[in-house]
Specification:
Blueprint (H helix, E strand, L loop, with lengths): L1 H10 L27 E5 L6 H16 L6 E5 L6 H8 L8 E5 L2 H4 L15 E17 L7 H10 L5 E4 L6 H12 L8 E4 L3 H9 L5 E5 H9 L3 E6 L25 E9 L4 H15 L2 H10 L2 E5 L1 H21 L5
Helix pairs in contact: 1-11, 2-10
């Protein structure tokens, strides 16, 4: 059933008029010169996770290629799986054209889950572009007794309190959903799974390596370096087909008998009250960036797959994804 849900997220988009994503502002003489000073891209997490790496890759590419001549810096604003800074960003009036935000499915999940939900979502921003897609990974230490995903699921089924699953996001958020999706499909009550949240993927990995967690759910791309160093093993990935590179030998959920997929997209947003001029400027520059060799190198280095959608296409996709997330949360009894 959940495979069908996620298939919809990959294939379907809703019709939407361009007027729906217009910020509706008027361009002033000052805005016509945009940008006139440095720009900040915020990663609403600690260092080392997918948001942080995406923000830094955008800044690095824009600065290196001089597509944007003003300097771009990255700031980390951790807290609540991205929800803490989202509340500030959604209501921020100042700096409205000079503060961008990198996000992924939690912008939808946090706005729709029952426990710890955020009143702010993508409609409180200006979606600018989707840039990449990634997948979830179920990971254990290299010396773990668990050799397969089925081993983990059988252990949880026998005694849910005996296995600690961790992730870099709050309960009901992305890592949690990636982790409990196989359990749900395996016939385990997802509410019975012992889940511990950390603030970002880097902290979740540290918990795993420090023996404070038995298993973690995280991004496939960010775990590859730990696989290469021999610290961890990946038991399965949530992609429809096997991935390339360091994780090429890792089976998919489907191969492990779990009839489900989970796609992790990443994109960049501006504030809700962003001027038309700034939005058009960023839309043009992001499309140009997506075609550069420098950006392609960033994708390869981070293990990301390119999936560019412009502002209109991204907003359409977000509408479809929100329906998918609501359906998944409802199935897991976590929808608000």
């Amino acid at each position: 059933m959940l495979k069908k849900i996620f298939s919809v997220s990959m294939a379907g988009v809703l019709a939407l008029s361009l007027a729906a994503c217009s910020s509706g502002g008027n361009t002033t003489a000052s805005e016509a010169k945009y940008p006139e000073r440095g720009i900040t891209i915020v990663a609403p997490s600690g260092a080392g996770g997918g948001w942080d790496l995406t923000a830094r890759s955008i800044a690095k590419t824009m600065n290196a290629t001089k597509l944007i001549e003003e300097p771009i810096t990255v700031e980390n604003k951790p807290g609540g799986g991205g929800a803490v800074y989202m509340a500030e960003y959604a209501t921020k009036e100042a700096e409205n054209d000079y503060m961008m935000l990198v996000k992924s499915p939690p912008i939808l999940i946090n706005n729709n889950k029952a426990e710890g939900n955020s009143p702010y979502g993508y409609k409180d921003t200006t979606p600018l572009a989707q840039l990449t897609r990634d997948y979830g990974a179920i990971v254990v230490r290299e010396d773990s007794k668990f050799q397969t995903l089925t081993d983990v699921l059988e252990a949880i089924k026998a005694d849910p309190t005996a296995v600690t699953l961790a992730g870099g996001s709050a309960p009901g958020s992305m890592d949690h959903l990636v982790g409990i999706l196989p359990a749900f499909e395996y016939g385990i009550d997802p509410k019975a799974v012992k889940y511990v949240s950390y603030d970002g993927g880097g902290e979740a990995v540290a918990a795993l390596l420090g023996d404070n967690a038995d298993v973690i759910a995280t991004d496939a791309s960010t775990i590859a370096e730990y696989v290469k160093s021999g610290d961890v093993r990946v038991l399965a990935v949530s992609s429809p087909e096997r991935l390339e590179g360091e994780l090429s030998e890792v089976p998919t959920f489907m191969e492990e008998g779990i009839d489900a997929e989970f796609t992790i997209w990443r994109g960049i947003f501006g504030p809700k009250n962003m001027s038309d001029n700034a939005k058009e400027y960023w839309s043009t520059k992001l499309e140009e960036m997506s075609k550069t060799e420098e950006w392609k190198q960033e994708l390869e280095q981070n293990g990301w797959q390119s999936e560019y959608k412009d502002a209109a296409g991204f907003e359409e996709y977000l509408q479809t994804q929100e329906k998918v997330i609501v359906e998944l949360l409802t199935a897991l009894d976590m929808q608000k």
